[in-house]
Design goal:
The complex is a heterodimer of chains A (about 400) and B (about 700).
Chain A: H1 2-6, H2 22-49, H3 56-77, H4 81-104, E1 105-108, E2 111-117, E3 120-122, H5 124-142, E4 146-148, H6 149-168, H7 172-189, H8 193-213, H9 222-232, H10 242-258, H11 269-272, H12 284-317, H13 321-346, H14 363-381
Chain B: E1 3-6, H1 15-43, H2 45-56, E2 57-62, E3 69-70, E4 76-88, H3 90-95, H4 99-107, H5 111-118, E5 129-133, H6 137-145, E6 153-162, H7 165-168, H8 174-177, E7 180-182, H9 185-190, E8 201-203, H10 206-210, H11 212-215, E9 220-226, E10 232-239, E11 246-249, H12 253-271, E12 287-293, E13 299-305, H13 319-326, H14 341-344, H15 354-363, E14 373-375, E15 378-380, H16 386-389, E16 397-399, E17 407-409, H17 411-416, H18 420-432, H19 434-437, H20 441-448, H21 470-479, H22 491-498, H23 508-519, E18 523-525, E19 530-534, E20 541-544, E21 549-552, H24 557-572, H25 577-583, E22 592-600, H26 603-607, E23 615-624, E24 629-635, H27 641-644, H28 646-658
Helix pairs in contact in B: 4-5, 12-28, 15-18, 15-20, 18-22, 24-25
Classes of the chains: A mainly alpha (about 400), B alpha+beta (about 700).
């Protein structure tokens, strides 16, 4: 009775074990399609101003989505339990990728986040999140006798390494996503509530220390705190945070101007005239808000909520620890990215740029989001079946 | 260290509950976002929409062509000329700085000059910057043919002031018209509601200043769409400017040119004529001439010397040109080209003031027209105490300057030959009979003639004359105790005042208007240059300036005819007879002139060295018995009025006899207003940016 009540609702059609989660697949594909359109309308003005074809971002994003669908399909077909075999290797590779940024990194917007491989630019921090999810899930799955404090510290260390590396890029947003992924996965893994609370307190103290010490040892840059601060004082006149205040202000204006049903696709003047910075990536939600209004943006948030719900439901239904943790991590990744991205555009979250799942422009992010959905589809498909 | 999490098979930790709680937490987060969307998009939509509109729309003022200023015969005194202007987009110049040297070569300037123009804050940042105004047609054509080589460069049309008269010298009626220049910070501050921009051009003097509210027109508005980089990406709305009203004046352009010429001519003659008594050449620093319609107060011509060219101001006056006009002249000493001496020059009136003294003496019954005074050449103040009066400057004995020892003279002869002795006597009689006539009988009449008050002419910067009196002396003493040590009023002071000396000063327009008042029988009109304001698009009269009576002088008929005979006598046989009879191209019997000379010690010389030549006046009116015009000419420090000023008046009447002034003609439809076509080229920034 209790179990039934707390079990997340399940559509009748997906009851059968081993089914493909059509809802998840459909929601993902629709969201990605919306994303391609939004990337186009949000980028054509800036692309033209930069001397590029207005279709530049559209074409590339469409290609990324196709690649993402391919990756998703491949991972959905493959038995997710095979990942456990290479879990630590995958994790190690993504850490190596993060280190690579510092060796052959490519600076964009003052942050070295990219590795260029010929025409392809890879953002290892996105892959590091996937690597962390697989790594943590593998780690827990192999502790069949339960977790000790030592195990907990190992897991914290596993998360700390990529977090410190992305913060040094500096990429605060991804580090925050990793932290949330870690906490949710620990919770799903069954960490006692009081330990979780203790962790929260320690994390808070660490954050405080990072704020104080971080800039001095070059781990975090001053502007990141300016941005964090600007979220709390959106009417401040402090010159150091004017840029972030302006960005968020323009974003809020764009969303506000959307009103009930928006200015119509391709019509927003904020969007078309480039008033919101980074509008195809970090601030893409403002383009959605201006063009599609509260109806469109709520629908988009609804799609992402459905995806999140299906991921969490997959965690609930998974029969093995590995699968459950993979799905829990995927949920944390997508759900919190959504909240951070859209929340920043609305001015209720600090300015720390992360992509809006399936919608923001960017090959690495699109690929990673599709990959975690692909893994989840595999978990759903194979639940209850013996390992191959 | 004990197990933190038990093995799954030992104690099931109810993952479903946890996951459900996690789900609820995130549901709350999503709900928060929807609430936030509600607050932003539903509650905040109105404000956000307004702010967004402000973001992207920039309103740029489009200056209106100024209203034209016409003379009474529909001739353009100040018009507009359409100029081809080469402009450069700021945005293009930033994106492609290579264009700057190319443009510089095209218009023949240095790249540094172009850079300077680009950073000039006078121009709106949303509009292309003017690089060359009045570009030659060849350059325009070259530009059209090589458009692709000059990105961001385009051709616009603009209007500026044009002065077609005098072969475009910009010198005809310069003081009357006044110049147009960039608005000053103070003017901008003082007129917060007038809608001026920091780049606005406003009338800075003359009619341009006086009728600025009508002449300026209504600025047009371009509502431009700009992106976040401030690039203009399109035009939302365009409100064309409305040209200012046409100002029709009472000025007759031909007469004006003639008057200016005669004034210059007489001043040149004065400067080259040695004073026979002192042996020096007169300074003849400055002068003025006024021609007024005695029956309406309409100003038919007004000239001031030295003058300047209005063209210096077109397109902005250079510092060098401005310095040349203002340096080397102090307004207290005279000779400043920018001063309109006709209205702001204060000159001692000398004998021309006898108009007021004679009117007062006759109207108050102090004397009758037939009363005679025996001019013995030296007026000794009866019972004068030399020790009392001598130290005070005026003294007890007064010489007759022009008509010494003329014998018995009545008022008519006294005016004709400018007999000082007669007027000393009037001053004396009024002084001793203050009980009956009051302390200021002459001053009262002078006030009725308007000699101590501004005339109210429709030009800015009019100076106020002053008629000497004890009260005035006290005022002057308060202002400048060193220059005016004495505040007492002795009989000698009354004598000096009575014949137009002492501390009395008047402007040419005041004096002209006083004689016009006499000429028409005692009605004082406000002098007016404007005749009407006309809407240039419909030719409808917006405002008509009808004659305005501002005062009366009551002159008994017998007194009037006696004085008029005296003024006629001045021209026929008196002080100015030689000038008029020798040179007039007309017969006085056909065109009867009356007038009065004035030869006045300058205010400065009476205080300081006394070596300056006197100010020379002549004011004439006619034709009697139905006078139409009054003509007043003054030349400072030039000599005797009859020789140093009267020839100009005579020439002006010569002109008027052959070219009588007709009624004011309002513009006819054949004279369409100048309009500025909207620039055919889109804003230069639009070429590379997408349309909104």
């Amino acid at each position: 009775m209790v179990r039934a009540a707390i079990s997340l609702a399940e559509p009748r059609t997906a009851r059968k074990a081993g089914d493909l989660d059509v809802t998840l697949l459909a929601a993902t594909l629709v969201t990605a399609a919306v994303g391609v359109v939004m990337v186009y309308t949000g980028s054509r003005g800036t692309a033209a101003a930069a001397g590029l074809s207005p279709h530049y971002f559209l074409e590339r994003q469409a290609l990324f989505v196709l690649l993402g669908i391919g990756a998703m399909a491949a991972l959905a077909v493959v038995d997710y339990r095979r990942l456990e075999l290479f879990g630590m290797v995958i994790y190690g590779c993504t850490i190596a990728g993060l280190l690579g940024v510092f060796v052959i990194g490519h600076h964009a917007q003052g942050a070295g986040r990219w590795i260029s491989l010929g025409p392809i630019e890879i953002q290892p921090s996105e892959f590091a999140i996937v690597g962390l999810i697989i790594g943590l899930a593998t780690f827990v799955a192999r502790r069949t006798d339960g977790l000790t404090w030592a195990d907990l510290f190992r897991m914290l260390a596993m998360a700390a390494v990529p977090m410190l590396l992305v913060m040094a890029q500096p990429d605060l947003g991804t580090a925050v996503i990793m932290a949330v992924v870690l906490v949710i996965m620990l919770a799903v893994a069954g960490l006692p509530l009081r330990t979780l609370c203790l962790l929260a307190v320690v994390a808070g103290l660490l954050l405080l220390a990072a704020v104080e010490v971080g800039p001095k040892i070059g781990l975090l840059h001053g502007y990141q705190f300016s941005r964090l601060g600007s979220f709390l004082e959106q009417d401040s006149k402090k010159p150091s945070i004017q840029q972030s205040i302006w960005n968020v202000k323009q974003s809020k204006l764009a969303i506000g101007a959307g009103g009930l049903h928006g200015q119509g696709l391709g019509n927003g003047s904020q969007t078309n005239n480039g008033y919101v910075p980074e509008q195809q990536t970090d601030f893409i939600f403002s383009a959605v808000g201006e063009q599609l209004g509260i109806i469109g943006s709520t629908l988009l948030l609804g799609l992402l909520a459905v995806i999140s719900w299906r991921l969490l439901r997959a965690a609930q239904l998974a029969r093995d620890t590995f699968g459950r943790l993979l799905c829990g991590g995927a949920f944390a990744f997508i759900a919190f990215s959504t909240f951070q991205n859209a929340g920043m555009a609305m001015g209720i979250m600090p300015v720390a740029g992360v992509p809006l799942p399936f919608v923001s422009y960017g090959g690495s992010a699109v690929l990673c989001f599709f990959m975690v959905v692909g893994i989840t589809l595999s978990v759903r498909r194979l639940r209850g079946r013996p390992a191959a | 260290m004990g197990a933190l999490v038990a093995a799954p098979q030992e104690v099931p930790y109810r993952p479903n509950l946890r996951i459900a709680v996690i789900g609820l937490i995130f549901l709350a987060l999503f709900a928060t976002m929807v609430l936030r969307l509600w607050s932003l998009q539903v509650l905040g939509q109105k404000n956000a929409t307004a702010a967004v509109h402000q973001n992207v729309v920039r309103v740029v003022a489009v200056p209106a062509p100024r209203g034209e200023i016409l003379d009474r015969n529909d001739r353009i005194l100040a018009g507009n000329r359409v100029q081809q202007q080469i402009v450069l987009s700021r945005y293009e110049a930033t994106v492609d700085p290579g264009i700057i040297p190319k443009v510089a070569a095209l218009v023949g300037e240095t790249p540094a000059q172009i850079d300077q123009a680009l950073s000039d804050s006078q121009y709106s940042v949303y509009q292309p910057v003017p690089i060359l105004t009045g570009a030659p047609m060849a350059t325009i054509q070259y530009l059209e043919e090589h458009k692709s080589e000059f990105p961001g460069v385009s051709v616009q049309q603009t209007t500026e002031r044009d002065y077609p008269l005098g072969n475009g010298c910009g010198c005809v009626a310069a003081h009357v018209l006044g110049y147009v220049g960039p608005i000053t910070a103070k003017e901008l501050r003082d007129n917060p509601k007038a809608g001026y921009q920091p780049s606005s051009q406003v009338g800075q003097s003359g009619l341009e200043e006086a009728y600025e509210p009508y002449l300026r027109g209504v600025e047009g508005k371009d509502e431009l769409l700009v992106n976040a980089q401030n690039q203009v990406v399109g035009t939302l709305r365009r409100t064309p400017p409305k040209q200012g009203d046409t100002l029709v004046t009472n000025i007759d352009a031909n007469l004006q040119e003639a008057v200016e010429g005669y004034l210059r001519q007489v001043i040149m003659a004065d400067r080259s004529t040695r004073d026979p008594t002192t042996g020096v050449y007169p300074a003849a620093l400055d002068g003025a001439a006024v021609v007024e319609d005695v029956n309406t107060g309409a100003i038919l011509a007004m000239a001031s010397y030295p003058s300047y060219s209005l063209n210096d101001w077109v397109g902005g006056i250079s510092t060098a040109a401005y310095d040349a006009l203002t340096q080397g002249c102090q307004s207290s000493l005279g000779g400043c080209p920018l001063d309109n001496y006709a209205i702001d020059g204060l000159y001692t009136p000398g004998s021309t003031f006898k108009l007021a003294t004679a009117t007062a003496a006759l109207a108050d019954g102090l004397v009758s027209p037939s009363t005679t005074v025996d001019d013995t050449g030296l007026f000794k103040v009866p019972g004068c105490n030399t020790s009392l009066a001598g130290g005070a400057g005026a003294g007890c004995q007064f010489h007759d300057a022009e008509a010494s020892g003329a014998g018995y003279v009545n008022v008519t002869k006294a005016l004709a030959i400018s007999d000082d002795y007669y007027f000393y006597d009037m001053g004396y009689l009024f002084y001793v009979d203050q009980k009956q006539y009051g302390p200021t009988p002459i001053q009262n009449v002078a006030d009725e003639y308007g000699l101590d008050q501004v005339t109210g002419i429709d030009l800015p910067g009019e100076a106020q004359g002053r008629v000497d009196s004890q009260a005035e002396r006290e005022l002057l003493h308060k202002e400048a105790p060193a220059a005016f040590p004495n505040t007492s009023w002795y009989v000698g002071d009354n004598l000096e005042m009575a014949f137009g000396q002492g501390a009395t000063v008047v402007t040419p327009i005041e004096l002209a208007n006083a004689y016009a008042t006499f000429a028409n029988g005692g009605t004082r009109y406000q002098p007016q240059i404007a005749a009407a304001l006309v809407d240039p698009s419909t030719d409808k009269v917006v405002k008509r300036f009808t004659p305005r009576v501002v005062g009366h002088v009551s002159i008994p008929p017998a007194a009037y005819s006696a004085m008029l005979q005296g003024f006629e006598g001045a021209v026929e046989y008196g002080t100015a007879a030689s000038t008029f009879q020798a040179f007039a191209g007309f017969s006085l019997s056909q065109f009867q002139i009356a007038g009065k000379t004035g030869t006045a010690d300058t205010a400065i010389s009476s205080i300081t060295s006394g070596t300056d030549e006197p100010n020379a006046w002549f004011v004439g009116f006619g034709p009697e018995p139905n006078p139409q015009y009054v003509v007043a000419v003054v030349v400072s420090q030039a000599g005797y009025g009859a020789q140093a000023a009267a020839p100009a008046v005579m020439n002006i009447f010569n002109y008027l006899v052959t070219n009588p002034i007709g009624p004011v003609q309002l513009p006819s439809p054949k004279n369409p207003p100048t309009t500025t076509p909207a620039p055919s080229n889109p804003p230069a920034g639009a070429s590379s940016a997408p349309k909104g």
